[in-house]
Design brief:
Elements: E1 6-11, E2 17-19, E3 24-25, H1 30-46, H2 53-87, E4 90-94, H3 98-105, H4 107-112, H5 114-127, E5 131-135
Parallel strand pairs: 1-4, 4-5
Antiparallel strand pairs: 1-2, 2-3
Length: 136
């Protein structure tokens, strides 16, 4: 269905996404939520003897924790992309220089996963015959 609305969006560090009307969309910083657990699992893994059964168990537990973060982030991004595509016919996003942002902000930018979100929005928009425009 065509809404006829055009939305401009800006990525940020304080808020994940801000639209042209000033509405801010917060991101659940997924890595930050489970960061302590991952650090604990990492320490546990480093104390195991490589190749042992306990080492492999610890490695699987760490991989599961990382996968849980990735799954939560992907779920959130798909839900947000569908919400935006429901509301807008044309979605305009700024084209980001992620490498420069990562140098300055580091793990925060990696946790926000701007590029992954843009790919998901483009995929959902294509499925729903909406248009995504990247602006420099």
């Amino acid at each position: 269905t065509s809404t006829g609305k055009i939305g401009g969006f800006d990525f940020g560090i304080q808020t994940f996404l801000t639209n042209d009307e000033g509405l801010s969309i917060e991101s659940s910083r997924f890595f930050r939520q489970l960061g302590r657990k991952i650090a604990k699992l990492n320490r546990s893994l480093s104390r195991k003897q490589q190749g042992s059964n306990n080492y492999h168990k610890a490695k699987r537990a760490l991989a599961r924790a990382h996968q849980r973060i990735a799954d939560k982030r992907k779920d959130y991004f798909f839900k947000l992309a569908h919400q935006l595509c429901d509301e807008y016919n044309v979605l305009c996003f700024e084209d980001l220089n992620i490498k420069a942002m990562q140098i300055m902000w580091g793990r925060i930018v990696a946790d926000y996963a701007f590029t992954t979100f843009l790919e998901i929005v483009q995929y959902v928009a294509l499925q729903r015959s909406k248009q995504v425009v990247l602006i420099d």
